[in-house]
Amino acid sequence: MTAIFIGSALGFVVWFLSRYLIGGLYTVDQNERAVKTIFGRADRVPDMTTASDPISESLTEEEKLRYTYPQVRVIPPGGPYFKWPWERVYKVTVATQTLNMAFDPDDHSANQDGQMLEAVTKDQLNTGLTGQLRYRISERNLYAYLFGVKRPISHVMGYFVSVLRERIANFEAPKAKVTDPEASIVTGISINDLRKNLRDINEHMDRECASSAARYGIVLDASLITGIDPPPEVESALAAINTAHNQVSSDISLAQATADQKIEQSKRAVEIETLKAQAEVEPLRQMTAQLADLKKSGDDALDAYVRNVRLTLYTRSEQVILEAK
Description:
This protein is α+β, with helices and mostly antiparallel strands. It has ten helices and eleven strands. The chain is elongated, with a radius of gyration of 44 Å. Mean pLDDT is about 80; it is low at about 180-190.
């Protein structure tokens, strides 16, 4: 009986050691971070919340009160680490991941099986958007990702899509300066504006989604909208509008170039005539100065100069006609 008891005790000890001591060892990979809970409560940093962290700078004062999470102790890569039976370890990957922006984590068949996201423009056209979204889990707000939100990726995707659709619905292209009043007859539609300003839209999405780390513990590294496709029924009309717009723009550019060329030619012609006039006037000015100097020398000097000039002209002439007295 004693041997059975000793064997049971030894078996229990071996089971306990293998189950809770050896089984309590764990490691954290290089691209992972871990958080440990003790009796279901996360191991926190005393008196530290996200409200005092720079991660909350993008939130308004009202949002800071709503999205205030405790700071938890983050277990870095390495190991082996040890945990007790009443402790649990949550591991998350912090590597950057890529998603199709049309992906719906709650319904994979939505948005044409996650291939195209639909949005309505300001002129009531239902257009399709394609692109990618890069994200990573925020190491500085793991509490929000693990315990604050039930499905963080669903919240982030819903937030991103709502911001994007609001931007598409209210987007207006910057007002361009038109030098020719007749060019105002060329009017665009919102899809043209969206296609020409994809970079501005992407930058706007990056700014608006900067608070996702403080809200849900997920950092949106970048959003890249790559395509904006109009409905099939307006594709041909849009192509015709674009063709007309390009033709008018080409005609306007050609007319401006021709006008600029004529203006430049006129400037050169005026410059040439001005130089010719100066060349004709300059000898007269020099002669005037010379005669004034001669007059200062006396009236006889001026008469002698006139006589010499007259004699020079006589020597060059083949025939001279004199007035008879």
